[in-house]
Amino acid sequence: MFIVTEVADATVDYDRKEKIPRYAGAGIPEAWLVDTANQVIEQYALPGKSRYQNVRILEWGDTPTAQAVKELQVAIKQVFGM
Fold it and tell me: Are 31 and 4 in contact (CB under 8 A)?
């Protein structure tokens, strides 16, 4: 597995505090948390024992590139349908 994506609205805090650290501990190279309420993507990379070493908050106008899968690029406005 190269990348995990969580899409959350009401569960964003749980996903950030519980699920994302589990993915890091499992050695998943990258995780994205799509926060639909705030229309941002949190990009987590470089997993450690219980957290990711690299965290980026991507906002409107950004086009993130997955670090684990370089061919994966998604404009934030495409994710949120605007």
Answer: yes
Give the single-character DSSP code of 73: B
Residue 57: φ, ψ to 5°: -105, 120
Tokens of 7: 């899409």
**What is the CA 46 to chain-centroid distance, rounded?**
12
* Phi, psi angle pair for 39, to nearest 5°: 50, 55
- Residue-wise DSSP of 14-47: HIIIIIHHHHHHTT-SEEEEEETTTTEEEEEEEE
Span 38-82, pLDDT tens digits: 999 999 999 998 899 999 999 888 887 887 777 777 778 777 876
Q: If DSSP codes are grouped into helix, strand and coil, which group holds residue 12?
A: helix
- The reported pTM is 0.86
- Per DSSP, the three-state class of 76 is helix
